């Protein structure tokens, strides 16, 4: 299995990256969160990967953070959740945010994700509880998350602005991208929302 890939980023879009490894270019499926955080074209990049072999295709999935790769592996073991749905989930929430959702039974956040209906979200919350505990135990980088079980999560200006855009009908990933490109130090929620809306028009 290919567990990690390091090379030069040749191309990227919201769901895929092309990485040159000593003259051999690999197409890697990535969540939007990874795509946004990757370096610029021509820069060196390292992704933690998961290799999937199907009858009709061989697919390589990549993540900047090892914790996101491990969460992806947890998600594809959930009944009814394949790699495509798992990638969609991690495009809207990174592993840390998803753990918070599971620990706080946050159904509302999950149903906002593309392709996730109420029944699927409810199944995710039920099936991920024990899996998340096992993941926290096995991943030192996420161990601190265990203290969040009964801790309220502070809402940032970016979070409030993103929720407002989603309420207006924009998709979570589009809202997150616009917020990220427009945010500045000291902005109020109202100013950030107006800037993000202008950016999306």
Protein model, in words:
The protein folds into 3 domains: 4-64, OB fold (Dihydrolipoamide Acetyltransferase, E2P), CATH 2.40.50.140; 67-150, 5' to 3' exonuclease, C-terminal subdomain (DNA polymerase, domain 1, Orthogonal Bundle), CATH 1.10.150.20; 157-200, Ubiquitin-associated (UBA) domain (Helicase, Ruva Protein, domain 3), CATH 1.10.8. 47% of the residues lie in helices and 18% in strands. It has helices at 32-37, 66-75, 83-92, 95-103, 107-111, 118-138, 157-167, 172-182, 189-200; strands spanning 4-12, 16-21, 24-29, 44-53, 58-63. The chain has a 5-stranded antiparallel beta sheet, with helices on one face. Helix 2 (66-75) packs across helix 6 (118-138) and helix 7 (157-167) crosses helix 8 (172-182). The longest helix is centred in the middle third of the chain and has 21 residues, at 118-138. Mean pLDDT is 84; it is low at 145-154.
Please describe the biggest sheet, giving its number of strands, its sense, and whether it closes into a barrel: 5 strands, antiparallel
Structural class by sheet pairing and helices: alpha+beta
Can you tell me the CATH topology of the largest domain?
Answer: DNA polymerase, domain 1
CATH class of the largest domain: Mainly Alpha
Tally the structural domains: 3
What do the pLDDT scores average to?
A: 84
CATH superfamily of the largest domain: 5' to 3' exonuclease, C-terminal subdomain
Poorly predicted runs: 145-154
Backbone CA Rg: 17 Å
- Strand order, sheet with most strands: 3-2-1-4-5
* Tally of alpha and pi helices: 9
Oligomer: single chain
Helix content: 40-55%
Q: What is the global morphology?
A: globular
Taken in chain order, the helices and strands follow as EEEHEEHHHHHHHH
> Strand-residue fraction?
15-25%
Strand tally:
5
Distance between the termini: 43 Å
CATH architecture of the largest domain: Orthogonal Bundle
């Amino acid at each position: 299995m290919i567990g990690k890939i390091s090379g030069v980023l040749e191309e990227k879009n919201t769901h895929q990256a092309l990485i040159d490894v000593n003259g051999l270019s690999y197409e890697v499926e990535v969540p939007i969160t990874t795509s946004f955080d990757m370096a610029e074209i021509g820069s060196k990049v390292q992704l933690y990967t998961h290799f999937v072999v199907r009858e009709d295709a061989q697919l390589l999935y990549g993540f900047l953070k090892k914790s996101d790769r491990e969460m992806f592996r947890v998600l594809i073991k959930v009944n009814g959740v394949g790699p495509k749905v798992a990638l969609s989930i991690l495009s809207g929430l990174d592993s840390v945010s998803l753990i918070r959702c599971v620990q706080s039974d946050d159904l509302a956040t999950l149903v906002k994700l593309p392709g996730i209906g109420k029944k699927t979200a409810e199944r995710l919350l039920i099936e991920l509880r024990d899996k998340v505990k096992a993941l926290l135990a096995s991943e030192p980088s996420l161990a601190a998350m265990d203290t969040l079980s009964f801790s309220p999560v502070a809402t940032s200006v970016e979070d409030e602005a993103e929720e407002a855009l989603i309420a207006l009908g924009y998709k979570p990933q589009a809202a997150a991208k616009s917020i990220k490109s427009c945010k500045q130090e000291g902005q109020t929620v109202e100013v950030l929302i107006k800037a993000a809306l202008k950016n999306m028009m």
